Structures are given as structure tokens and as C-alpha cells.
Amino acid sequence: MLQITSTMAGTILQINISVGDQVERNQEMVILESMKMEIPVESQEAGIVKEIKVSEGDFVNEGDVLIVLE
Amino acid sequence: MMQKILIANRGEIASRIIKTCNKMGIQTIAIYSDADKDLPFVSEATTSYRIGEAPVGKSYMNQKAILDIVKKEKVDAVHPGYGFLSENASFAEIIRKEGTIFIGPNSKTIQMMGDKLLSRKKMLEAGIPVVPGSNEELTTEEEAVAAANSIGYPVILKASGGGGGIGMVRCEDEKTLRKNLETTKKRAKTYFANEKVYVEKYIQYARHIEVQIFGDKLGNIVHLFERDCSIQRRHQKVVEESPSPFLTEGAKEKMLQAAVRAAKAVGYENAGTVEFIVDEEENFYFLEMNTRLQVEHPVTEAITGMDLVEWQILVARGEILPYKQEELESKGHAIEFRLYAEDPVSFLPSPGHIEVLDWGKGDTRVDSGYKEGVVVTPFYDPMIAKCIVHGENRNEAIEKASVFFNQLQIQGIKTNAPLFKHIINDADFKTGKYFTNYLSVKKFN
Questions:
Q1: pLDDT tens-place string over residues B274-330
Q2: pTM of this prediction?
Q3: CB < 8 Å to B350, chain A
Q4: What is the annotated signal peptide range for this record (chain A) (predicted)?
């Protein structure tokens, strides 16, 4: 199991995946907005999306778990 | 009379406006979000109101909440600063319908200049050169490809309602253009509630030079010289200076006159900026007009000795421009550095707690919205201060900047200060040889 965490504090602008999706390594899964900049959150490994812990518009802090892969 | 002004903004620009209001004996009403409650502008204003939670939609963009305070405090005028609601024509109209002065041009001008396609048309009519591009909205891939073919690649796909570098995609070829058309339209609709897009020729070796203009209600228009803003990252300005180290006197005079003609063509009132793209042969093309006070206005204040916020208030009160064109003079050389809370190499944001902040000694003007001990939050623009040096000539200004950045101490957040040290020691910057691609070509680290 792999937890994808937020690299910085910000707002979830867009979620590009759904539970059950197969994701590749370096795939852009979530776009975070911080200080008027869009920051893509990529998967470090390939896997299947088990859980999405955030919704679009949510505010997250650095280190918060966004997505769980298996 | 104008005795009380509400400032519909935050941070450094709110502090900047308060300073001039204090000088003129005008009371100030500040609004602040939960995230900004400890920032200096909140205590500097005569009275402050909490406007809402941190996200801009619940605070600085919440027109209804702002209007409620305008009514409650019976303010005489609203100063929108830059960004947020400053170029929102319907907000300006709502304020005016309330019988309150909106410090800026009339809503018709704001609307026309906010629509980039419409403003291109208006400028063409006035005989001002515009960047070669499509003069109509592009709806289908075929229309976009035909327009791009007629001007030649690379092109920039732009949102008509866009600004601030958002909604712009550089397309090298037909494939990239086709790929980006729908997403750019979608994004334009989300960000600007206007899905109109168009293409413009991408000028490879370009300079971004703008002219400060000012108009009063009596139809008088003056320019306050140019600012060279070519050093940018992500289409956002990082360093601005005046005079431009690149323009020859003849070309400069033509641009200044074109800017005045552009302002006259739309019957411009209050502070505005006409932005041009200038190619290597000094051909210049109208890019857009910003209908507000510009972030980099202190550069102009340094070389002219004028207080542009004071001018804005005088003109908004219906007074004549305080000086005639022939009385205005550009003296010495000024450079502004925008200090951002971001990684100096990757340019990624770096919010956090400012543990140490010491600007050092000297006569560098620092317009900052923060102080030691406060938190830079992820909700707003990453700019924490503008540092403006002024010298008798460009070399002296660069020397002052060097001393300033060696003294500057900031701890707790990352900033782009190390980048400025590289820039002011770079031979190309020192000789004024730089284009808008400067930072992406140089790769300082």
C-alpha cells in the first residue's frame, strides 16, 4: 500500500482519477493550488487507486494523505 | 470631499494606500480575512473589519460582504488596489450605484479593456499596432489552425478574459494547438467566466515594456514614462526598471505617444498601464491595458517623485491632473525586485512562518505586507515585498541593490532573494541585454 501525501499546504483544485483506476508511475493524479500556482501531485509508483481521501475544494496541509494506492 | 476610503485589498498594497490616505488626512477602512488578521495593514487602518474565511471567494472577492461594510461605514470611496476586484466592471458599477466613488476608470472602460479581443479591436481602430493574431474568437480547431497558419508558429493561445499569466499556452505546432484548444477554453471559462480564446504570434526575443498613463475627468491625459518588465517567470514579473536599458530615445518617444493615444481613444480616467511587446528591432505592439494601479508603480514614483495613489484620489474627486506633461520629468534610474515566498530554483511556493525579517539599513524603499513573526499562508499571491532602489544612474541603482540583498535577512520561509543576487551580478543584466525568456535561459542555481 502506498500513501500519496501533499507536498505543501493548499487547496485541491482538480482530481484526475477515480477509485479502482490503474495509475502509472509519474501520472498526475491531483492538482493542488497554492499561492495562485497550480502544483501537480504525481504518483511515485504504479498501482490501483484504493481510496481518495480528499474532494475538490478541500484545504490540505503539508503531509496530509490525499490518495491511497495498492 | 473624500473623508473615508474603504480598501478592498490586503497586504502591501493596503498598507501602501493607507500611507497616502494618512498624509491626505483621509480615514481608512480595511477588510481582512481570517488568514490575514495579524498582518500590519489590519492595525494600520483607522478601522478594520473581518470579512470572512481565508479563501478569496469568502473574503476579498465577496462583493456582498464588502458592499455591506461600504453602506455601514458610509465611506466616500472604495480603492480596489490591484488583483481581486480591481478590474471587475460589475463591482465598480455596484459601488457607483451606491453613490460611492470607485477609485479607477469607469466600468465601461474596465469591461472593454478586460476583454482582450475587444481591446485589440479598439486599438487597431485607434491606429495602435497590435501583436499579429486572430481578431475574432476561435471556436473550432479548424478556425484556430487556420489563424495560426496565417501568422506562423509558434503562437500563444490566450484567454480573452485572461490576465496575470493565467490561461496562456505556447504552441509550437499544429498538434500542440489542437491538443490545447479545448482545455484552454475550459480553463478560461472556469477562471474568467469567459471561454473566448484567440491566438497571437509568439515573439521569440521580446521585451515587455509598459507605459504608465493617467487621465482626469476633464479629458486630460499624461504619461509618466515607461517601465521595462521583461524579467519574468511563468509570465509574471519579477524585476521592473525605468528607464528601459534597451530602448533608444526615438523608439521610446513613439511608444509613450502611442500609449497616450491609446488612453485618449478610450477616454481613459485615473491610473492605467498600456503594455507593449517590443521586438529586437524596436517594433512595438499593444498587448493589453491594465485599468488599475500597477504592482510596480513605485518604480514610476521613484523616477518622477510623484505619489500615484495621491493622484488617483485627486482625480477620483474630480480634480484636474496635478501636473502637465511638460512638467513631468524622469530622474535617475529605479529598479524594483519582487520578493516572493518561493524556492529560488524551482519557483515553487514556500508558505510558512517568518522567523526572522530584517531589511537592513539604507535608502531602499520596501513595500511589504508582512513583518517578523507572522505567517505567509498559501491562500494568496506569494509576493511578500517589493524592494525599490533608486540611483543617479543604472549602475548606482544596481550597486544599491547589491548592498540591500547582502544585508537582507529572512528566515523561516524560502524566498527568491538568492536569485536576485545572481541577476545583479550577471553580465547580461548589467549591460541591459535581456528578454522575457531571461530566467528560463539563464537557469541560475
A1: 999 999 999 999 999 999 999 999 999 999 999 999 999 999 999 999 999 999 999
A2: 0.94
A3: 8
A4: none
Amino acid letter, residue B80: P
Q: In this model, does residue B204 exceed pLDDT 90?
A: no
Topology at the third CATH level for domain B132-201: Dna Ligase; domain 1 (3.30.1490)
Residue of A nearest to B83 (CA): A36
DSSP 8-class letter at B130: B
Domains observed in chain A: 2-69 (2.40.50.100)
C-alpha cell of residue B83: 488583483
Phi, psi values for residue B276, rounded to 5°? -125, 150
pLDDT in tens, B350-370: 999 999 999 999 899 999 999
| ipTM tops the 0.85 cut | no
User: Using N-to-C axis directions, what is the helix angle for B394-407 and B417-425, rounded to 10°?
Assistant: 140
Say if residue B164's pLDDT is above 80.
no
Interface of B with A in 375-414 (CB under 8 A): 377-382
- Strand arrangement of the beta sheet that strand B207-215 belongs to: B284-290, B270-278, B207-215, B221-233, B236-242, B333-340, B383-391, B365-368
Q: Which residue of B has its CA nearest to A62?
A: B351
CATH number for the region B4-103 comes to 3.40.50.20
How far does B181 lie from chain A, in Å, by closest CA? 19
Phi, psi of B391 (to 5 degrees): -135, 175
Q: What is the pLDDT of residue B244?
A: 98
The architecture of the domain spanning B207-442 is 2-Layer Sandwich (3.30)
Q: How many CB atoms lie within 10 A of CB B176?
A: 17
**Which residue has cell 524594483?**
B336
Peptide bond connecting B105 to the previous residue in cis, omega within 30 degrees of 0: no
pLDDT of residue B364: 98
Q: Does B348 touch chain A (CB under 8 A)?
A: yes
B330 vs chain A: nearest CA distance in angstroms? 34
Distance in angstroms (rounded) separating the CA atoms of residues B107 and B274: 17
Contact B225, B303 (CB under 8 A): yes
Who among B55, B164, B349 is closest to A35 (CB)? Answer: B349
Enumerate the domain spans of chain B.
4-103, 132-201, 207-442
Q: Which residues of B are catalytic?
A: 292
Output the pLDDT for position B259.
98
